[in-house]
Structure formats: C-alpha cells, structure tokens
Design goal:
Order of helices and strands: EEHEHEEEEHEHEHEH
Distance between the termini: 19 Å
CATH superfamily: Methylesterase CheB, C-terminal domain
Structural class: alpha/beta
Strand content: 15-25%
Helix content: 25-40%
Largest sheet: 8 strands, mixed
Number of strands: 10
Number of helices: 6
CATH architecture: 3-Layer(aba) Sandwich
Length: 197
Amino acid sequence: MTERKAHDNKRIQYDTLVIGGSTGAIPGITTILEAIPADVSMAIVIVLHLSADSEIYLTEELLQDYPLPVTVIKDKQTLEASHIYIVPGNYHCYLEANMRFSLSMDEPVHYCRPSIDVFFESVAASLQGHCIAVLLSGANEDGAEGLLALQKTGAYTMAQSVASSVAGEMPMAAQRLHAANFIGAPKQLVEKVLSLI
C-alpha cells in the first residue's frame, strides 16, 4: 500500500467515482461496489474493455441485485447521482461539460474501444477534480495517461497494486507516470474510497 500526498483531499467534495480496467478487473470492481453504501450520493461510472457478452454479464448478472440503478450508457444520457453507469462495448465514451455522456465510434486508442484514457481525459476536463478515479488490472497501458490527467485537475487517483493484479501492465503504466495518489490491493482501495466519500 502506497500513498502520495498530492493535495488535501479533505477539502474536496467528490461527486463521481470512475473505475477503469481490463483483464482481471471484474473482481476488483465487485469488491469496491459491494462495500459502497446503498445511500451513496455519488455517480459511479465503469469503463472496461468489454465484449458484448461481458456487458450483459455485468448488467444482468453481476450487478442485478445491487441497490443502485445500473445502466448501460446511452448517447446524450445525463450523469445522475446515486446511479451506476457502464460504458458500452465498442464505443468511446465522453463526459461533456453539461454532464451528458456522448458516444462515438472513432478509431480505437491503445487498440481499444472503449478507451479508458478517452473517458478519463473527458472526465478530467468536465469535473475539474471533483471525482475519485480507480485504475484496476489490465493487459495494456490504456488508462494511465487518463489517470494522470485526472490527477492534474485535483481528482484523487488510485491504482491497483501490480502484485494483486491478474494483468499488471495497466497499473504499472500508471505507476511509471506517478499518476496514482494511492496504490493498493482491491480491499485497500475500498478502504480508501470509503474514507473519501
């Protein structure tokens, strides 16, 4: 477990939790979501390198009994508190300044669509630091630059430890950029998230 004191996070109101990951990330996502109180007032957005089958599994099986509404994002949908949003497979997703999502089929980034970098960078521009961002296990570097962009705006950023990851390339890339304020195994990430909300 490692923490970098980038700013005084007690002064910031975090409105949104964004989670990115790829290979091996679903166990970390469930660990985080199962610990978050049902009355949380944050919006939660999950962006994964999803196949259509994985998207169905997430929304219809894994998260079907979660107390917050779970929605696969639709173009122009508005971000609302106390909701969980899943970025759909095969689309890049952006959060616009008016708090609406937009979807595109632009070229893949890091061979991925959706790209975590694309989404995280749009959140950095739109929320200006008022979010918590978590980058989980994954097999390429997508998400590291986006996590750094979020950190630079004052967001509280976290990465899964390489040792606890199924695929460590994604969190390792974040560590190389010093993009994470906190690094830990999923249970440690949960404890940190709960201390901030």
